[in-house]
Amino acid sequence: MPSSEPLDRAALGERLDAIFSFDVSSGRNYDELTEPLLAGERAVQEFALHWAKVAAPTHLEIAYLVVLLAPLALDRLGRRDAEAWVVAALDGFDRVGLRAAVMRLRDIEGFARSASPAAVSLDAIAPRLQRFLQGLAGRPLRVEADARPWTDTETVYLPPLVELATREASADRYLALAAMLWAQGRWGTYAMDIDAALADFARPDHALDWLALLEALRLGARLERELPGLRGEIAALLAGLPPQLDTARAALAAPGAGVDDSIAWLRTHAEVAVSPAPTLECLPTLHPADARERRAARIREQSQVLRLSIAELLESLRAGQDDPPPELEVDADPERLELEVKIDGASVTLPPEGLAAAQSLLQDLGEIAPELLVPAGPAEWKGDGVGKGKPGTLETRADALFDEWDYRRQAYRRQWCHVYLHAVGGGDESYVLAVRARHAPLIRQLRRRFEAMRGEDRVLRRQSDGQDVDMDALVAAIADRRGGAEPSPRLFCRRQRDERSLAAVFLVDMSGSTQGWINDAEREALVLLCEALEMLDDRYAIWGFSGWTRTRSDLYRIKEFDEAYGTEVQARIAAIQPRDYTRMGPPIRFVTEKLLAEPVRHRLLVTISDGRPDDFGDDYRSDYGIEDTRQALLEARRAGVRPFCITIDRQGADYLKRMYGPAAYAVLDEVRKLPLKVAEIYRKLTI
User: Fold this and answer.
1) CA distances for 619 relative to 387, 514, 616, angstroms
2) Residues in CB range of 674: below 8 A, 6 or more apart
3) Are 590 and 489 contained in the same domain?
4) In a domain, 439, yes or no
5) pLDDT digits 0-9 by tens, 485-536
6) Of the ranges 185-194, 318-327, 421-430, 638-647, which one carries the lowest mean pLDDT score?
7) Which residues contact 613 (CB under 8 A, 6 or more apart)?
8) What is the pLDDT confidence band of residue 265, given thresholds at 50, 70 and 90?
9) Average pLDDT of span 334-351
10) Does one domain contain both 46 and 13?
11) How far apart are CA 570 and CA 429, in angstroms?
């Protein structure tokens, strides 16, 4: 039994050295950390040391602050909420960075207030705000925490906690602030170089603060017109504006008012801009440099996407012919973010990526400049990066973001993994024909077995009527009568044919370790399986997976549920090739969502892999990867998906039981058994 005696200075120093990876002989002074711990009980010391060890792999500064502030947090919050306090800080680091994590750790009182019934935390309302902003902007805006609200036009920064009179009022305040920050990007606050416009003021810093209040006034009036449902919330937000701005209300409330009108008013009232503006914590501040950088990068990116989209459209219309360059016209409505594209007078539709880029440019520029209508040269929509470990960038936005389970924190790392979707192509269409010829007897055998599954009836026993006598029920009835009891009239059995209602996804490992025989066996297994499944009406899909760190989890579409097993799908199976690493959590979460969208009673997920979860350059290959994969499978199982794994890793039994459970996996000792085993296991799982 562990001792309850507090650790002394030397023991604490040794434990801290182990966490922070400093040798005792280095002479590092831990007095700032050890002094508050020496005054505490052993439980307080162990709490601080445990959570510092959990936080250290994320960032040593977070671990340092956890040790420093843990006694105060335990005293103010209690153990359970103190654990949540550390996890919230780690989550803030994952999503924003060190600044957010430090802010959350130091704001112990704010974290304590979040337990108030009237308080709403940003973490709790962020998903709702992101949907709200997506609907307003038509393009994604991230939501992150900061002490004061502001935006760089791509991320909306909001207070980590709002506490008004009621919980509803607190939530409404978040909606009003989010709308106000969206409006800065939508209605031109950053359409001009604000720093340059204010450079000749006596105090540019004071002028910027006053401009933020004027813009809140202008945008508030615009929001009340455009979003009347938020009128009350916007009015409450602006209630604290200083009386010096009363004369600006009428001019800035005009329908055509812009940021230049706010600056013009400031120039005609220069005496106001000399003094500091009142600090109103609830109103947004302006960060021109950050917004200018983000806005410029986005305009460059979207301009290139639009030009590539136009090039693709023109190429598809010309179909390689040497016709003269067509006349391109664009009629844009910046207010409604609508545009009509005409080529030689005929209306055409831009590809979805190009349309989204054009709408984004309309928001930022208010127009589609003529130079943006010049088609770009040949290029891909986004860098492939397959096999090269290329992380996501502005030019390669992830198709989806997924949480990842960190067992050390006992919490999720929110939107941690970037998933990219690809279509497998370029395979040899004759491959499937060759496999059919090579395994013709086996395919015929599998088809007969699967065809029998389609026609199998279920026997319902102890029925009140039916075609046959249920002998067990009859014997029980005779025994009841001889014993003086009333016999049951349910003495028959009836055959009933049930309609199969099942969807299955086969998730195929395309990591580099499948090179050679394993990859060949996977492809043959899929051919045999598809040939057999054509005997059933089951809906099935096939996806391959690989990846390179959390920033590049690649999923390869081989067959969708609604696709027929035709030449195109067969060519994709032939094109399955080894890629990178085996980060299994994101693919499992992705295909689980796919399965849950299917209108069936039963859902099956079969993973075909050659080994344990693994990835490049991090600890995913350790217990971390196993625990994240296990958590993803638990999520699937709770949602009604039945997971199963087929592996050819002979050492798999030591971790597969932990990941899948004792009866949800099969280990093959020989690769050549894989094709037959996959089909046979599917048959057993679905009868």
Assistant:
1) 20, 21, 8
2) 521, 522, 524, 525, 608, 646, 648, 668
3) no
4) no
5) 888 888 888 876 556 678 889 999 888 877 777 788 888 888 888 888 887 7
6) 318-327
7) 582, 583, 584, 585, 620, 621, 625, 626, 628, 629
8) very high
9) 78
10) yes
11) 6
Residue 387 reports pLDDT greater than 50 = no
Sheet holding 346-348, edge to edge: 328-333, 338-343, 346-348
For 281-323, what is each residue's pLDDT tens digit? 889 999 999 999 999 888 888 888 888 888 777 777 665 555 6
- Concatenating the DSSP letter of every residue in 446-514 gives HHHHHHHHHH--EEEEEESS-SEE-HHHHHHHHHHHHTTSPPPS--EEEEEPPPP-EEEEEEEE-SGGG
- How many residues are there in the chain? 687
Q: Mark whether 129 and 193 lie in a shared domain.
A: yes
Q: Can you give the CATH number for the domain in which 660 is found?
A: 3.40.50.410
Number of neighbouring beta carbons within 10 Å of residue 440: 11
What's the domain count of the chain? 5
Domain annotation covers residue 385: no
65 lies in some domain: yes
Residue range(s) defining the domain that contains residue 467? 458-496
pLDDT for 28 equals 52
Q: What does the alpha-carbon distance between residue 152 and residue 155 come to, in Å, rounded to a whole number?
A: 6
For residues 512 and 644, membership in a common domain is answered with yes
Least confident range from 108-117, 267-276, 614-623: namely 614-623
**pLDDT value, residue 587:** 94
Q: Are 87 and 71 in contact (CB under 8 A)?
A: no
Residue indicated by tokens 């999503």 = 95
499: tokens are 């309609």
Residue 451: band (very low, low, confident or very high) from pLDDT cuts 50, 70, 90: low
Four-CA torsion 384, 389, 393, 398, nearest 10 degrees:
70
Last residue of a domain, one of 285, 316, 335: 285
Give the span between the Cα atoms of 10 and 456, in whole angstroms.
Answer: 73
419 DSSP assignment: E
DSSP-H helix ranges across 575-640: 585-596, 623-638
DSSP per-residue string spanning 86-128: HHHHHHHHHHT-HHHHHHHHH-HHHHHHTTSTTEEEHHHHHHH
Task: Reduce the secondary structure of 339-394 to three states and give it as a string.
Answer: EEEEECCEEECCCHHHHHHHHHHHHHHCCCCHHHHCCCCCCCCCCCCCCCCCCCCC
Q: Which amino acid is at 489?
A: P
Q: Which alpha helices (DSSP H) does 245-287 contain, by range?
A: 249-252, 259-268, 270-274
Residues 275 and 301 reside in one and the same domain: no
Query: Chain-wide mean pLDDT for the chain?
Result: 82
CA distances from 485 to 128, 479, 491, 633, 638 (A): 63, 9, 16, 50, 44
User: In whole angstroms, how far apart are CA 429 and each of 378, 425, 535, 567?
Assistant: 27, 10, 22, 7
What is the token pair recorded at 294?
Answer: 């983000």
10-to-17, 20, 478 alpha-carbon distances in Å:
11, 15, 82
pLDDT of residue 367: 81
Per the CB < 8 A criterion, the answer to whether 555 and 583 are in contact is no
Q: Please give the structure tokens belonging to residue 262.
A: 């706010």
Domain boundary among 62, 80, 113: 113
Say if residue 140 is in the same domain as residue 159.
yes
| 3 occurs within a structural domain | no
Q: How far apart are the first and last CA of the chain?
A: 51
Report how far residue 404's alpha carbon sits from residue 416's, in angstroms, rounded to the nearest whole number.
6
Q: Is there a single domain that holds both residue 619 and residue 508? A: yes
**Are 443 and 532 within 8 A, CB to CB?**
yes
Residues 126 and 242 in one domain: yes
